[in-house]
Each structure stands twice: as structure tokens, then as C-alpha cells.
Write a structure and sequence with these properties.
It is a single chain. With about 220 residues, the protein is α+β, with helices and mostly antiparallel strands. It has one domain (about 1-224): Thiol Ester Dehydrase, Chain A. The chain is built from 3 helices and 9 strands; from the N terminus they run E-H-H-E-E-E-E-H-E-E-E-E. It has helices at about 30-45, 50-70, 140-155; strands spanning about 20-25, 80-85, 90-95, 110-115, 120-125, 160-170, 180-190, 190-200, 205-215. A hairpin with a 2-residue loop joins strand 8 (about 190-200) and strand 9. It is globular, with a radius of gyration of 19 Å. About 25% of the residues are buried. Bound molecules: ligand 3IX. The site of ligand 3IX has 23 residues, from strand 3, helix 3, strand 6 and strand 9. Ligand 3IX binds near residues 150, 151 and 212.
């Protein structure tokens, strides 16, 4: 495969596209712990056997919390800037449903540079990600892979959108236990970035995916 997509020397700055950026270290600790609490709450609500009295009390407490938070909001599209220990800077959407640090619906998946190249992350999906009994929903496995594959292209300086995603489910992925997610760039051709990745449980591949990411058109690309 031709290798002619040039990684950008520096990642595009979302501010140049009119998007707000929040550095991750500026997310208040209180918000981070609130998000954790809500993640646990969603799981508790999904599985509770509490009686009517406890349910009504919980509903009122949640309604009060909800009312507390109906103030100023970040715009949709706000980006979060993460700086890794190796100095690598990464941008993602603040409320990305797979990895967003302020999204209680996100597991969240965090990918870091893998020693063997590409990216690697570990994630535990609780019972709110259930498809078949005790197993992760296949759509969520596709979402994990999509995110990891996109992040792998971004980490090589070629952020883009998924044009085509293929997922093979090889073995069941259990809930409530660490899953390893790996992803890497396998080739490039003009603006096309080919990526591949896997989800593993206990070292065994449970799902594998390949995708075509089309790199963002950047100033100076000349439409290539
Ligand atoms: C806004 C700026 C923000 C700045 C951000 C800065 C940094 C961000 C950094 C990192 C981001 C990191 C991670 C993100 C991680 C994960 C996110 C998860 C991924 C997603 O959740 S993402 C949402 C789902 N995704 C979509 O919502 C896409 C909808 N879609 C489109 O928006 C267009 O469709 C697009 C853009 C894909 C292409 O459009 P286009 O006009 O730019 O490009 P064009 O059509 O010219 O194609 C160029 C070459 O790709 C070939 N090609 C195109 N499409 C193909 C297909 N489907 N199959 C096979 N080949 C295809 C052509 O054949 C040609 O090939 P060739 O070079 O050989 O001629």
C-alpha cells in the first residue's frame, strides 16, 4: 500500500476551527468525582431492587442534584486537551461517549502509547453496557474499537473521521472485568488512513476491527 499521507507536524488546534478547548487538568476535581458518582448511580438504578420508599427518596435526591446543575454549560463541540507524560498532546471531545472525561455515559476508555507501537488502553464495562446476559453489547465493542482506531490515527498526527468500520466478534466479552483495547495505523494513501485494533479479555481476542479514517482536510493540503 502506498504510504503517502503525510502526518501533520503538529495537530490542528481546535481553536482555529472555532471550538472551545478545556485543558483536562482544569476540570474541577469535584466534577470528576461527580461524574464517577453518576456512573455508579446509572448502574445502581439499572439493577436496583429497592422498595418504593427508597426509590422515591432517590428520585427526589437526583431531581435536586439535576436542578443544581442547570446553569452555565459548555458548548457542544467543546474539546478537551490531554497532555501525556511523554509530552504528547491529544484533543478529543469533552463529552465523547466512549472517552469523554465529563460524560458519565462513557466507560471511559483512555488510550496511551503502547511500547510495541500504536495505542493501548484498559477498560471495565459495567452492567449498563450489557447486550446478551453477562456480556458486553456488540455495538459498544464497535464503539470502543471505533474510538481506539480514531485515536490511533490522531496519535500519528492524522486525525480524521471514520468512513468505514468493520468488526469481527471472535469470542464473548464479559462485563465487569478488564478488557484490553489496542489499535494502530497500518497504512496510508493520500488522505486515507488504514487502522486496525483488537479487544482482548485475558489475552484472548474477543473482537477485532479495521477501519478507514479519512484525514481532516487541513489548510495547505491543496485538496489532496
Ligand atoms: C473540526 C476540527 C476539530 C479539530 C480537531 C483536532 C484534533 C482532533 C484530534 C484527534 C481526534 C482523535 C480521535 C477521534 C477518535 C474517535 C472518534 C470516533 C470516530 C467517529 O465516530 S467519526 C463519526 C462517524 N463518521 C462520520 O460521521 C463520517 C461521515 N462521512 C464523512 O463526513 C465523509 O464521507 C468523509 C469525511 C469520511 C469523507 O469525505 P471527504 O469529502 O472528506 O473525502 P472524499 O469523499 O474526497 O474521500 C477521500 C478518500 O476516501 C475515500 N472514501 C471516502 N469515504 C469512503 C468510504 N465510506 N469507503 C471507502 N472509501 C471512502 C474516497 O474514495 C477517497 O479516496 P481516494 O483518495 O482514493 O480518492
Amino acid at each position: 500500500m502506498t504510504v503517502d499521507a503525510k502526518p501533520v507536524a503538529e495537530l490542528p488546534d481546535p481553536r482555529d476551527f472555532g471550538l472551545a478547548v478545556v485543558p483536562e487538568k482544569e476540570i474541577p476535581a469535584e466534577l470528576a468525582s461527580l461524574v464517577e458518582e453518576v456512573r455508579s448511580l446509572v448502574d445502581a438504578v439499572a439493577h436496583t431492587k429497592a422498595g418504593a420508599h427508597e426509590l422515591a427518596a432517590a428520585r427526589d435526591a437526583v431531581a435536586a442534584a439535576n436542578a443544581c446543575l442547570q446553569g452555565d454549560r459548555h458548548d457542544v463541540g467543546t474539546m478537551v486537551q490531554q497532555t501525556w507524560p511523554d509530552g504528547r498532546v491529544e484533543y478529543g471531545t469533552l463529552t465523547n461517549v466512549v472517552s469523554g472525561p465529563t460524560n458519565a455515559a462513557a466507560p471511559p476508555l483512555r488510550m496511551e502509547a503502547a511500547p510495541e507501537g500504536g495505542l493501548r488502553g484498559e477498560v471495565v464495562l459495567n452492567g449498563t453496557y450489557q447486550g446478551p446476559p453477562g456480556l458486553v453489547h456488540g455495538g459498544w465493542l464497535a464503539a470502543l474499537l471505533d474510538q481506539a482506531l480514531g485515536a490511533a490515527a490522531g496519535a500519528e498526527g492524522m486525525p480524521g473521521l471514520t468512513a468505514d468500520l468493520n468488526v469481527n466478534y471472535r469470542n464473548p466479552s464479559p462485563l465487569d472485568t478488564p478488557l484490553e483495547v489496542t489499535a494502530r495505523v497500518t497504512g496510508t494513501e493520500r488522505r486515507k488512513v488504514f487502522v486496525a485494533g483488537e479487544v482482548r479479555h485475558g489475552g484472548r481476542v474477543t473482537a477485532e476491527g479495521t477501519a478507514l479514517m479519512v484525514r481532516m482536510n487541513l489548510p495547505g493540503d491543496g485538496g489532496a
